[in-house]
Amino acid sequence: MVRTRRIWVTAAAVLALVGGVSGTAAHARPVPAAAESGGKLPPGWRIDEGRSAPQLVWRSARQVPMGDARVEFRADGRLLGVPKPERDGHSFRLGLEAARTGELTDLQVWSGGRRLDTRSAATEAPAAAAGPPAPLPAGPVDPGKPGHYRTTTGEYRLKSVRLPGFSVPVEMSAVVVAPTGVTGPRPLALFLHGRHATCYTPHGDDGQASGAWPCPAGTLPIPSHRGYLRDQRLLASQGYVTVSISANGINGQDWQAEDGGAQARSSLIRLHLGHWADWAQNPRQAPPIVREAPRADLSRVLLIGHSRGGEGVNRAALDSLYPPPAAQDGYHGKVSWHISGTVLIGPTVFGQNPVPDVPSLTVLPGCDGDVSDLQGEMYVDGTRAVSAGKALHSAVYVIGANHNFFNTEWTPGQAQAPAEDDFYDDPDRRDPVCSQGTATRLTADQEHRAGSTYIAAAARLFVAGDDKVRPLLDGSGRRAPSADPARVLSHAVGANRGAGFLPDGKVTVSGGRLCAAADPDPAAACLGEGAEGGSPHFAQWETARESGRNAVALRWTSVGATTRVKVARPVSLKGAEALALRVFVPPNTKGTRLDVAVTDTHGRRATLGRVRVDGLPGSERTASYWARELRVPLSAARRAGVDLSSVKSLEMTGRSSSGKAWLMDAWGWRPGTAAVRAAVLPRVDVGRLRVDEGDSGVRTYHVPVRVSGRGSGQIRLYVVDPATGTAKDRLVTVRPGGRAVDVPVEVRGNTRYGADLSYDVLVKAVHGAVVGSYRGGLTVHDDDPAPEVTVTPLADRVTEGSALKWRISLSKAADTDIGALFVPVPPGGGAPELSTKDVDPQWLADASGAAPDPERPLSKVDGLGLWLDIPAGRTSLDVSVPTVVDRVGEPAESVGFRQTGDDGTPLPDGLLLNGTVLDAS
């Protein structure tokens, strides 16, 4: 039997229908019923009866700015779904037919690792944070210095395009900044902004911005694509042709895309690149600004994406190497370009499937108030062991930077439209790291200058191939003076790193703990309970528990405690200069010291050296548990005769009196960047099949999973139980034409009304494969008509002190709870109305949270909404509402409740429930 979730039904809530019946019938809807303590929804939550299904609605007292991180509804730690935002910026709706069945307890709203539906009580001042670290030594080159070319700027606008899954065409507009006085073709840098409000009212009050598309009359598009002009001018002065493209049409519609719009953004990028490739061959067909610019060299392309734009450029790089399914793609031309690298600024990574063989730089803003879990770290961590590991994947952590100020059109005082600091500053509880004016927080200008410098660094390394800039990006501990006073730290994987110790693989740990990056059990999780803030390395994915994402947790209480990591297969460090470890310690801590040693398969051991690591400045609102790259030379091992071609274990010994640390990985390191060639890999895409339940019989359907490309590889397949929301996973070897990824689903037909049901499937690349569309499944539509609801009065004209009573009946039983919402309306004809002092005060409090005083008609009581709920399998329900004797002589009083629509307003043709209460005297 298929059931929807039960959201709230207590005795008081169920007994919330009042009055008689108009004699009409209405179609009922499935409504979930009970769950929070005492049967009440938490403040801000409600159920709205939709036209096809009920909706779980959360309304924020403060406007939630349109941002890049997804707003997610969770219950008891599991993901329910991604709600649709309302245009008012306050309300979010999730169709309950799409959410998991089972009890809804502990309802919460999350976005980018930050909880939105509650705030920490300001009972005590936050602990002091560490100050900014000392400046690093300057690197051998400074990529932030402008070049010697003059620049020219212009725009182009092409015909809008239709993208799969989006009902409204998307604009093809861009701003170009190019060098002048240049001979020969020049590399191309393409920028894509993130998810921001799309339209604004000129000269309006702050906050008059929306996510509508197309923009309504009287409003203008927000020019988010013009927010990187400073970055474009710097690159253009250094000889790059730059273009920044607009994606408002995607931002206004991506709530309906299962992947958050990643595939649509990839299609848009490649549509622009396709035009640039054509214009390079046929300059006369190009827009004027493109004709004025040097010819673009499409064999040297750098993609720069901010926030969801970062996920878009990652997908575009993937799709350029491994073509996506044609039905889901908006670009069907040739790939006449080569992506040399990507820059991802505060990016989302909902699928956690980065492209492994394209070099990348991920910018992590330490005070990001939007994608606040800094999930973009997965563009580094998620590439390990997937392919050959030759591409450099770097992350730079910018202390004190927020999310928005990398884009001037998202920066107050610089933007045309309303803009704000995304790191919300609570005046009653200022953050010691990220509140404006603290020693660590950057100004908008300082932040943007740092961003420009590191974008230019990536261009110089990935496109121009200048290895002198690498120490700024690969954990070598060098800085670019142009980014001062920003403190920018880096670590990396790939490039000339060799084999290493990877906790995700087959390892055993003694003296420490092999911990899970994502696990609801605090004893298994790496951070567990008590951590102040979060870790980008442990950003949560779609499932509460994941397999194969691990780290090594160290904790010691005396000098000399040792943690040993032993690998199943010996590691070769031959040819490496140093062992590079990525280690983090708790924020704001100083002077953690560790001795590092290795042992070979013959038992020869050598202590390589001692490292010291300090924590980043952090607070409970930051993701500051981020790994620093620490290097120890291998010279001591060579002197000790250790066979570096066959190392079996790594040891870390605490030399502080006590401490905690986490090891992400360790690699053989030598300088330089290797030549990168994309491997031939199979690509996996999960689709979604939608079927009708049918009236009888059992049908077996298979979740559509497409494997394309060549070769074979491994993925991890997660199948989510629709009843519990928990996921089971298994490793699967995939190859084109194979049937290893087979998820059968049995659908049993019947003629009873029920809820739609989704069987979700998720995939992640593990080794030798890439993943495009990471989520899909089977959605079963219940195709049976809803039963009719009628109301029979049992006592609809009573003396005060008695209860009004009715029987709610269905024309036939359903396989789901059936409910409807009613709101009070004034009686017709000006009749006296039942007031707050005419009903039982406890019933009033349970039904609405209101008190009787001041006395007012029930139709004036905020939040008074009356639910009926008939449990699955039953056909009737008796309900009542208690009245009280008020000892005040008065005429007969009436009350009326009208059935509501999606928005909670009464339906003109909905059921009308009337009742009359007579004076007892």
Number of strands: 51
Using only C-alpha atoms, the radius of gyration works out to 30 Å
The structure class reads: mainly beta
Unreliable stretches, pLDDT < 50, 5 or more residues?
Answer: 1-39, 98-102
The major pleated sheet works out as:
9 strands, mixed
Distance between the termini: 52 Å
Please estimate the helix content. Answer: 10-25%
**Main sheet strand line-up:** 11-12-17-13-18-19-20-21-22
Topology:
Elements: H1 11-14, E1 26-27, E2 29-30, E3 45-49, E4 54-59, E5 71-75, E6 78-81, E7 84-85, E8 91-95, E9 107-111, E10 114-115, E11 151-161, E12 170-179, E13 186-192, E14 199-200, E15 209-210, E16 220-221, H2 229-237, E17 241-245, H3 248-251, H4 262-281, H5 288-292, E18 296-306, H6 308-321, E19 339-345, E20 360-365, H7 378-381, E21 393-398, H8 444-463, E22 488-493, E23 500-501, E24 507-510, E25 513-516, E26 550-556, E27 562-571, E28 578-584, E29 592-600, E30 605-613, E31 628-633, H9 635-639, E32 647-654, E33 659-669, E34 682-686, E35 688-692, E36 698-702, E37 705-709, E38 713-720, E39 727-734, E40 744-748, E41 757-767, E42 770-771, E43 775-781, E44 788-795, E45 797-799, E46 803-810, E47 818-825, H10 841-848, E48 866-870, E49 876-882, E50 893-899, E51 912-918
Parallel strand pairs: 13-17, 13-18, 18-19, 19-20, 20-21, 34-42, 35-43, 45-51
Antiparallel strand pairs: 1-44, 2-47, 3-4, 4-8, 5-6, 5-9, 7-8, 9-10, 11-12, 12-17, 14-15, 14-16, 21-22, 23-33, 24-27, 25-26, 26-33, 27-32, 28-31, 28-33, 29-30, 29-32, 34-37, 36-40, 38-39, 38-41, 41-43, 44-46, 46-49, 47-48, 47-50, 50-51
Helix pairs in contact: 2-8, 4-6
